[in-house]
Write a structure and sequence with these properties.
The complex is a heterodimer of chains A (245) and B (99). Chain A is mainly alpha-helical. Chain A has 10 helices and 2 strands. Chain A has helices spanning 4-18, 20-23, 27-47, 51-76, 91-112, 126-135, 138-159, 170-179, 217-221, 229-236, and strands at 203-204, 210-211. In chain A, strands 1-2 form a two-stranded antiparallel ribbon. Chain A is elongated and about 105 Å long. Chain B has 99 residues and is mostly helical. Chain B has a single domain, classed as Orthogonal Bundle (Helix Hairpins), CATH 1.10.287. Chain B is 78% helix and 0% strand. Chain B has 3 helices and no strands. Chain B has helices at residues 4-23, 27-52, 56-86. Chain B is elongated, with a radius of gyration of 17 Å. Classes of the chains: A mainly alpha (245), B mainly alpha (99).
């Protein structure tokens, strides 16, 4: 027999979060609620004398399956809008009516049946389960192994994207750039005057003229560049102060 | 409290999962509805195992768990493949498949 308080707690932490499947707008909220449902179900398994299954439920469902759901949610984008336009007319009411009818039907049938309950329940400890699995159901276990391998290979095949073009090597990239007329050597660095953080000051060529290319294009677009004449003048004549022109 | 109450709880959870599959358009949420239905079936199996005092129900629930894990992997891969092809995971979008 199961403690009545425990039953009602389990009922509350499974049914209430499960309702978010119908009413929550964001898929992430739904996923987190379903995690809570899975924890509640694991509690129910332990209460019903299946401690191994309860642990497996937590490891497989809350740990692996729901996290996989969250990964896929992150992959396809959390902000996927759910459109409310109905493609089938009245689908919402038909669906709600069908599901509510199914629930009412099942509950009324199950509520009316009276099954004898065994006085001594079995405890599904790992050793009991293991002996059962590998003696009576060993063939099923092997078939399940095949199923899991097939599922893994299937997932790999479905998510595999073939490469349409051959991969470009660094040599080809460089050759294309030169053919397009790019300068094969580096651009000159911006001028560095000792007293200024000079990324915005052009470098000087050997004749003392500023090299326009040495300043970042972005700074030029924002018109945050300087000509550097002030600093050149200071270098030529150290007696001049900053700000004199 | 009689374990039959857990079967009633499982029926309610199954109905909620079925409603989610029928009502929601987001493929991932509908898929979580399928997961909830599978888990409701598991809960019923474990309750029956307790009622009969046999371990077989728990073994069956374990098998359902493994099959559900395989199903999740393939289902999510299909959702990702559909998303790559048409940038949406709405269940209404691939309707042009119908003849």
């Amino acid at each position: 027999m199961v403690n009545a308080v425990l039953f009602w707690i389990i009922a509350a932490i499974t049914v209430i979060p499960a309702l978010s499947l119908l009413f929550a707008r964001k898929a992430v909220h739904v996923a987190m609620s379903v995690v809570l449902v899975m924890v509640g179900l694991a509690t129910a398994y332990v209460a019903l004398g299946a401690p191994f299954l309860g642990m497996v439920q937590i490891v497989v469902y809350t740990g692996a399956v729901m996290m996989l759901f969250l990964f896929v949610l992150m992959l396809v984008g959390v902000d996927q809008r759910e459109e409310l336009k109905e493609t089938i007319k009245g689908q919402r009411w038909i669906g709600l009516f069908t599901a509510a009818g199914l629930g009412a039907f099942l509950v009324s049938i199950v509520g009316r049946t009276a099954l004898p309950t065994a006085e001594v329940g079995v405890q599904g400890e790992p050793d009991v389960i293991a002996i059962m699995l590998f003696e009576k159901y060993v063939l099923v276990i092997e078939v399940l192994g095949f199923l899991l391998i097939t599922a893994a290979v299937g997932a790999l095949v479905l998510t595999h994207t073939p490469r349409l073009k051959p991969r470009r090597t660094q040599l080809e990239v460089q050759r294309d750039r030169v053919l397009m007329g790019a300068n094969p050597v580096n651009k000159p660095m911006p001028g560095v005057y000792a007293r200024h953080n000079a990324l915005d000051v052009p470098a000087l060529d050997p004749e003392g003229q500023p090299i326009e290319d040495s300043v970042s294009r972005v700074l030029k677009t924002r018109s945050q560049t300087q000509l550097g004449e002030e600093y050149r003048a200071q270098l030529e004549d150290p007696s001049r102060k900053e700000g004199d022109r | 409290m009689d374990p039959i109450n857990f079967v009633i709880l499982a029926s309610i959870l199954f109905a909620i999962g079925a409603a989610a599959v029928l009502l929601r358009r987001n493929a991932i949420i509908a898929f979580m509805g399928v997961e909830l239905m599978l888990n409701a079936a598991n809960l019923a199996l474990v309750s029956f195992s307790r009622m009969h005092g046999e371990i077989d129900g728990q073994i069956m629930a374990f098998f359902v768990l493994v099959v559900a894990a395989a199903e999740v992997v393939v289902g999510l891969a299909i959702i990702i493949a559909v998303f790559r092809a048409r940038q949406t995971i709405s269940l209404d979008e691939p309707a042009e498949l119908k003849g």
